[in-house]
Design brief:
Number of strands of chain A: 0
Radius of gyration of chain A: 12 Å
Distance between the termini of chain B: 18 Å
Oligomer: heterodimer
Structural class of chain A: mainly alpha
Order of helices and strands of chain B: EEHEEHHEHHHEHEHEHEHEHEHEEEEE
Order of helices and strands of chain A: HHHH
Shape of chain B: globular
Number of strands of chain B: 16
CATH superfamily of chain A: ACP-like
Distance between the termini of chain A: 13 Å
Helix content of chain B: 25-40%
Number of helices of chain B: 12
CATH architecture of the largest domain in chain B: 3-Layer(aba) Sandwich
Largest sheet of chain A: none
Largest interface: A-B, 16 and 13 residues
CATH topology of chain A: Non-ribosomal Peptide Synthetase Peptidyl Carrier Protein, Chain A
Structural class of chain B: alpha/beta
Shape of chain A: globular
Strand content of chain B: 15-25%
CATH class of chain A: Mainly Alpha
Number of domains of chain B: 2
Radius of gyration of chain B: 20 Å
CATH superfamily of the largest domain in chain B: Thiolase/Chalcone synthase
CATH class of the largest domain in chain B: Alpha Beta
Number of domains of chain A: 1
Largest sheet of chain B: 12 strands, mixed
CATH architecture of chain A: Orthogonal Bundle
Chain lengths: 88, 404
C-alpha cells in the first residue's frame, strides 16, 4: 500500500517553501519542531496541501500544530490516515 | 514640524529598465518599454499593449519561500527595497529595533496570484486553493513582507489611492519621520497585467485600444486616446536629516512639500481639485511658483483630463510658464508604482540637471498651453521639481522635491 516516506515528506516540505535556500532538510530532522526547521503555520498548511496533491488522503487543517508538529509526527499521522483510507 | 525628510536611496523596477541607472539612461534616451503584452495572448482584448518588465528575475532578489508566498507586485517591492537600501547604505541590522518603518502604496493588490488561485477554486475546488492566497492578494502584503524580510519594525502602513498612491505613501512616510524619526522605506509598485487585472481596467474606459506602441499613449497630444498600463514602480529610502547625517549619507533631495485633495463629486459644477493640491504643496514647501524648475505631469492621456491638468498648471505657473514632462509615456501608467517612479525620476533630474522627455506626443493639443518637454531631454538646472498624480475616483496629489 501507499506510504509516505521521510524522503517523500522532505520533497513535499521543499515544494511548500519553493526550495528556499535557507531551508536545510538534509540533517536529522525527524524530531525537530516544524518551526525550528523554518516552517510557520501557513507553511505547514502548505505542506499538507502538497501531501494531498500526491497521496489519496485528506489532511484536516485543524490541530496541524499537533498532528504535524515534527516530521516524525507527520509521518505517523499521514500514514495512519492512509491506512484508515485503505481500511475504509 | 521642522524635521526634514531626505531621500537617500532609490530602487527602480520599470518596463524600460530594472535598477535606477538602467531606467534613467533608457529614459533620457527616450527608450520606451511599451510593447505587445507577452505574458499571455492579449489578442482577444481591446488593449493589447502595455509596459511589461521583461528583465525581472524574481529569484535574483527574492528567496524561494517568499516567491511561493507573494504576487509579482510584492516581488517588485521586495526587489526594489533591496536596491534602495543598498543604494542608501542602510543596514537594517545596524539600525535601532524600531528605527525603520515601511509605507507603500498599492492600487490593485496581488492580481496574478489571485487570478491563479480563483482559477483553481473554480476548476478544482476549495482544497486546491493555496494557503498563501490568504495573504498574497491583500493590499498590505508588500508592506508586510518588506517589514518582515528587512526586520523593519517601525511604523508600517499601506495607502490605496490609485495613481496618487505613490505620492501619498511618501507623504505619509514624511509624517512618520516627523513623529518617530529614523528611516522609512516608502513608494509603491504595481503588477496589473494579468488577464483579470487588464479586464478590470478596460472597464474604466480610460485605456487606449491603439495597436501601435508609438501611438498608444499620447498625453497632451491632439491624438490622445487613453493610456496603456504598465508594471513596476519605485521604492525610496526616506530619512530624517539627523539620521542621514549620522550615517554620512548622500541625499538625492528632500520631500519639501506635499498636499492631497479630493475632487468634488461629478456634476457638482465645482472645479477639480488638482490646482488646490499644487498651491497647497508649494505653500507647504515654502516655495513660489517661479522657483519650480520642472513639473512631472500626471498625464492621463485622456483629452479632457489632460486639459484639466494643463489648466491647473497654467493657472499656477502661467501659460508655458514651466517645463512639463511625462516620462511615463515610456512605461505606461503604473498606478501606485507610477507616481513613486515619477518622484524618483524627479530626484534624478535634480541630480543630473536634465529633464527627461515625453515620448510619442508630437502635436500638442492647442487647449494645453504648456511647455511640454518632448523630442528629447532638456538640460536644465533643476533645484525644485513638482510631481503631480491623479488617482481614478478623485484623488489629487502634489509633491515638491528639492535639491539637498
Amino acid at each position: 500500500m501507499t506510504q509516505l516516506t521521510l524522503d517523500d515528506l522532505r520533497e513535499c516540505m521543499l515544494l511548500a517553501v519553493g526550495y528556499d535556500e535557507s531551508i536545510d532538510l538534509e540533517q536529522d530532522i525527524l524530531d525537530e519542531p516544524m518551526g525550528d526547521l523554518g516552517f510557520d503555520s501557513l507553511a505547514v498548511m502548505n505542506v499538507a496541501r502538497e501531501i494531498e496533491a500526491r497521496y489519496p488522503v485528506k489532511v484536516p487543517d485543524e490541530s496541524l500544530d499537533e498532528t504535524m508538529a515534527t516530521p516524525r509526527r507527520t509521518l505517523e499521522y499521514i500514514n495512519g490516515l492512509l491506512e484508515e483510507g485503505v481500511a475504509a | 514640524m521642522s524635521t526634514r525628510a531626505l531621500v537617500t536611496g532609490l530602487g527602480i523596477i520599470a518596463p524600460n529598465g530594472v535598477g535606477a541607472e538602467a531606467y534613467w539612461s533608457a529614459t533620457l534616451a527616450g527608450k520606451s518599454g511599451i510593447d505587445q503584452i507577452s505574458a499571455f495572448d492579449p489578442s482577444g482584448y481591446s488593449t493589447t499593449l502595455a509596459g511589461s518588465v521583461e528583465e525581472f528575475a524574481a529569484a535574483e532578489f527574492v528567496p524561494g519561500r517568499l516567491i511561493v508566498q507573494t504576487d509579482r507586485w510584492t516581488q517588485f517591492g521586495l526587489a526594489a527595497t533591496t536596491m534602495a537600501l543598498r543604494d542608501a547604505g542602510v543596514e537594517a541590522a545596524g539600525m535601532p529595533e524600531y528605527g525603520v518603518g515601511v509605507v507603500t502604496a498599492s492600487s490593485s493588490g496581488g492580481n496574478e496570484f489571485g487570478q491563479r488561485e480563483i482559477g483553481r477554486l473554480w476548476s478544482q475546488g476549495p482544497g486546491a486553493v493555496g494557503v498563501y492566497q490568504s495573504i498574497a492578494w491583500f493590499y498590505a502584503a508588500t508592506t508586510g513582507q518588506i517589514s518582515i524580510r528587512e526586520k523593519a519594525r517601525g511604523r508600517c502602513g499601506v495607502v490605496v489611492s490609485e495613481q496618487a498612491g505613490g505620492l501619498d505613501a511618501l507623504g505619509q512616510a514624511r509624517r512618520v519621520l516627523r513623529e518617530d524619526g529614523g528611516v522609512v522605506v516608502s513608494g509603491g509598485t504595481e503588477a496589473p497585467l494579468s488577464p483579470y487585472a487588464l479586464v478590470c481596467q478596460i472597464k474604466s474606459g480610460r485605456l487606449s485600444d491603439a495597436r501601435n506602441p508609438d501611438e498608444c499613449y499620447l498625453p497632451f497630444d491632439r491624438r490622445a486616446r487613453g493610456h496603456v498600463p504598465g508594471e513596476g514602480g519605485a521604492i525610496l529610502v526616506v530619512e530624517t536629516a539627523e539620521s542621514a547625517r549620522s550615517r554620512a549619507a548622500n541625499p538625492y533631495g528632500e520631500i519639501a512639500g506635499y498636499a492631497a485633495t479630493f475632487d468634488p463629486r461629478p456634476g457638482s459644477g465645482r472645479p477639480p481639485a488638482l490646482r488646490r493640491a499644487i498651491v497647497q504643496a508649494l505653500a507647504d514647501a515654502g516655495r513660489a511658483p517661479e522657483e519650480v524648475d520642472v513639473v512631472f505631469a500626471d498625464a492621463a492621456g485622456v483629452p479632457e483630463q489632460d486639459r484639466a491638468e494643463a489648466e491647473a498648471i497654467t493657472a499656477v505657473f502661467g501659460p508655458r510658464g514651466v517645463p512639463v514632462t511625462a516620462p511615463k509615456t515610456m512605461t505606461g501608467r503604473l498606478y501606485a508604482g507610477g507616481s513613486a517612479l515619477d518622484a524618483a525620476a524627479a530626484l534624478l533630474s535634480i541630480r543630473d540637471a536634465v529633464i527627461p522627455p515625453t515620448v510619442g506626443t508630437a502635436h500638442l493639443d492647442p487647449a494645453c498651453d504648456i511647455d511640454l518637454v518632448y523630442g528629447g531631454p532638456r538640460d536644465a538646472r533643476v533645484r525644485t521639481a513638482l510631481v503631480l498624480a491623479r488617482g481614478a475616483g478623485g484623488f489629487n496629489s502634489a509633491m515638491v522635491l528639492t535639491a539637498p
